[in-house]
Amino acid sequence: MSSSTPGVVVVTGASGGIGAAICRRFAREGWTVVGTSRDAASAPAPEGVAMRDLDVADAASVRSFVHEVLGAHGRVDVLVNNAGIGAVGAAEDTEVEILERVLQVNLTGVARLTRALLPGMRDRGTGRVVNVSSAVGLVPAPYMAAYAASKHALEGWSVSVDHETREHGVRVLLVEPGYTDTGFDDAVLRPAEATGAYDRRVEALEAFLTRALRSGDSPEVVAAVVWKAATGAVWTVRFPAGRLAHVAAAAHRLAPRPVFDAALRRAIGLPFRPR
Question: Which long-range contacts does 45-49 make (Cβ < 8 Å, 24+ apart)?
Fold first, then answer.
């Protein structure tokens, strides 16, 4: 697939932040851009972007959306699965319903929409699926167990599917942002009740995340990496996006486990060793 040949791209979770930046990048390059939101009517549409309703966790919504898009455009050349939700809280406190909801959106929703659009890509012998993961998909952070589980699952699913589809001309790739200055913190689920045993640590983590996100990379940094993954030559399945993501990927690959573990705990204010 060449960036000099504009096509049709679908970007989920396009109402703001990274998704909106991805839409703007593709629109600027002359692509036909379909962005999605659970409430497209109230979502600001970037110039050159057609916003459509889609709830990736709802099978009927996905079927209706795919029927509409293929009816209007005949094909989808690139699918960017960007829609996602987060969860913060101790695993002991986090209700199973929160874990199920996070997996519904961050994993099952990706699989559902990808499966619906893969046949057309396979039949044409070309296509890209770019799944927006996270540095947490490589490095699980404490008090984010549900989110980390969803992103680790997404990473494994994506790599497996990429092996299956390569011979048909379709690549399934991962973009792994670090801390990005978006409104993602507004889409975070939290336990309804807590034991109190972890409150101090969770509050410290939330304060750390708030600071890190506000000083993080711009959404345009991630959009540029998505563009590269979607249209450029592919030498890898994983594309780190931003400063922290590159550092985390290198450290995860090269640092001895005890050193890496200690650095992670130090960064978020946890004691190095259990009492």
Answer: 46/14, 46/20, 49/14, 49/23, 49/24
217 DSSP assignment? B
Identify which of 132, 142, 145 has the alpha carbon closest to the alpha carbon of residue 17.
Answer: 132
Domain with residue 164: its CATH number is 3.40.50.720
Q: How confident is the model at residue 104 (pLDDT cuts 50, 70, 90)?
A: very high
pLDDT, residue 45, reads 81
275 belongs to a structural domain:
no
Which position among 143, 147, 179, 198 bears the catalytic label? 147
* Domain limits for position 176: 8-267
Largest CA distance in the chain: 61
Known active-site residue 179:
no
255, pLDDT greater than 90: no
Alpha-carbon distance 212 to 163, whole Å?
35
